[in-house]
Amino acid sequence: MTKEFGLNDIVEMKKSHPCGTNSWKIIRMGADIRIKCEGCAHSVMLPRNEFAKKMKKVIVEADTE
């Protein structure tokens, strides 16, 4: 099962951020994926395979136009 996600999607991770929120926005995609916390705007870069393991689900899909 492959998880589907795209640029500017809001995703839920398995563990919450220390600021208390659990939603992240995907702001860069490539071999690495950069996500930004929706609560405190802290950004983190993860390898794609590690991100796929830690992601729980897509909360809001970005408009693809």
Number of helices: 1
Low-confidence blocks of residues: none
Strand content: 35-45%
Order of helices and strands: EEEEHE
Number of strands: 5
Oligomer status: single chain
Based on secondary structure, the structural category is: mainly beta
How would a crystallographer describe the biggest sheet? Answer: 5 strands, antiparallel
What form results from the Cα inertia axes? globular
Q: How many domains make up the 3D coordinates? A: 1
| Major sheet strand order | 4-3-2-1-5
- Kindly state the mean pLDDT as a whole number? 90
Portion in helices: 10-25%
Radius of gyration: 11 Å
Distance between the termini: 26 Å
What is this entry, summarized?
InterPro entries: DUF951. This protein is mainly β.
Walkthrough of the structure:
The chain has one domain (10-60). 11% of the residues lie in helices and 42% in strands. It is built from one helix and five strands, in the order ββββαβ. It has one helix at 48-54; strands at 10-13, 23-28, 32-37, 43-47, 55-60. Strands 4-3-2-1-5 form a five-stranded antiparallel β-sheet. The longest helix is centred in the last third of the chain and has 7 residues, at 48-54. The radius of gyration is 11 Å and the shape is globular.
